[in-house]
Structure formats: structure tokens, C-alpha cells
Amino acid sequence: QQPVQSPQAVILREGEDAVINCSSSKALYSVHWYRQKHGEAPVFLMILLKGGEQKGHDKISASFNEKKQQSSLYLTASQLSYSGTYFCGTEEQGGSEKLVFGKGTKLTVNP
Amino acid sequence: DSGVTQTPKHLITATGQRVTLRCSPRSGDLSVYWYQQSLDQGLQFLIQYYNGEERAKGNILERFSAQQFPDLHSELNLSSLELGDSALYFCASSVPGGSTEAFFGQGTRLTVV
User: Fold this and answer.
1) Taking CB atoms and an 8 Å cutoff, what residues of chain A touch B55?
2) Residue B97: CB partners within 8 Å, gap ≥ 6?
3) Lower Cβ count inside 10 Å, N or C end of chain B?
4) Sign of dihedral through CA atoms B79, B84, B86, B89?
5) How many CB atoms lie within 10 A of CB A23?
């Protein structure tokens, strides 16, 4: 079951904040976040396991609400290098480690 | 460099043909995933192998098949190719145990003409 991401696209000015949401209709075991720049492979950002754990590094953090099967990625004080398409990937509880991605959120950070 | 190697990088072929995409996972990774990414589309999960065995199937067409060999490299076979099969095909690998970082290869861009 493919997770649903919102918004589909975001345009920011450098220094602004953004939130990208990911939701699933299935009970989740984990949520993964990846960033893909145009023409490149997706790159891992972080994993959140069930338990509502919040993670982050630098100015990018994420949360996972396992009751609602929702995750949010927070980008604060955005930098030009944050531009790209962000994908959330989900693993269902009791699953086979199958990692299914949403359609992505395209983030553009302008000077 | 993620450590995952995909060959070839580019492939141009005609409709109706068959191609094989190859993926060498990172050393020690037992899981291999295949994804299809069409223009402006997300990453569509195709299939997952774990230590030579098929672990999970996604939206993989019957014309497509895959396998993972004893040395853990994997091949994705696409047959009776159609124009709509043109896409970027990614392979990713991860360590055993699940819920770990997946490392993506640089992808194979397939163009069907």
C-alpha cells in the first residue's frame, strides 16, 4: 500500500521552513525518508521506528505518530542544498521489510 | 558512492525486445530491492529478494522477472518491451534485519523506441 505524501510541491525562499507529510492506511513498523536530486539516486535521510520517536540531524528532523500512521519531515531554515524531491518509504507491521515509497514532494529553495 | 553498482547505466532498445539489468549490492547486504521510476513519478516498488529468495512483490508486470544469485548480485529481466517501460530502474540494497538504510545504485535508464 503506497503511502500518501503532501504537499506535492513546495517553493521556499532560503531560510524559510517547510513540513512534508506522509500517511498510510496500514499499520506501520517504520517510516524512511529519502531525498533525490534531479538525475541522481535517492539518498537516505533518516528512519523512524514505531514508538513516536523523533529524529533529526542538522536542521532536518522528523516525527512518527504510530497511532495515526503519519510521519512528518521538518526542514527549518532551508538552504539551497535542500532542493530536491523528498520521498517517504514505509514498512508495514508484520511485513517482509518491503519498502514502499510515496510519490514524492518536490521542494525548491530559491535564493 | 553508495557501494551499489548497476549496469548498464543507459540502455536503448526497440519495442518487443528483452533486456537484462544487473545489480551488485554492497558487500554484506543480503536484501536487494528493484524500483521503477518513470518521468515525474515516484519510486514504484517492483520486487525484493533476500539472500537468494523472493521476499516481496510489488507492481511488477508478468513480462518482468528477477532473480538473486548465490553471490547476491541480482538481475531484472524485462521482456516484450513497450514504450511505456521506458524509465529509470533503481536497485537498492540493505543489511539483514530490516528497517535499515537502503543504499541505492545510480540506476539504469532504459529507453524503448
Assistant:
1) 96-98
2) none
3) N
4) negative
5) 19
Bridge partners, B56 (sequence order): B48
Residue type, B93: S
Answer with the residue of higher pLDDT: A99 or B26: B26
Q: What nine digits make up the cell of A79? A: 538552504
Among A64, A54, A57, A58, CA closest to A88: A64
Side by side, the strands of the sheet bearing B19-24 are B5-7, B19-24, B74-78, B64-68
Mean pLDDT of chain A: 90
- DSSP 8-class letter at A95: S
Judge: A104–B2 Cβ closer than 8 Å, yes or no. Answer: no
Tell me the pLDDT tens digit for each residue of A82-94: 999 999 999 888 7
Contacts of B54 (CB under 8 A, 6+ apart): B47, B48, B66
Beta bridge partners of residue B33, listed in sequence order: B48, B92
Q: What angle do CA B101, B38, A3 make, to 5 degrees?
A: 50
What is the DSSP secondary structure assignment for residue B71, as one 8-state letter?
A: T
Tens digits of per-residue pLDDT, B78-104?
Answer: 999 999 999 999 999 998 766 778 999
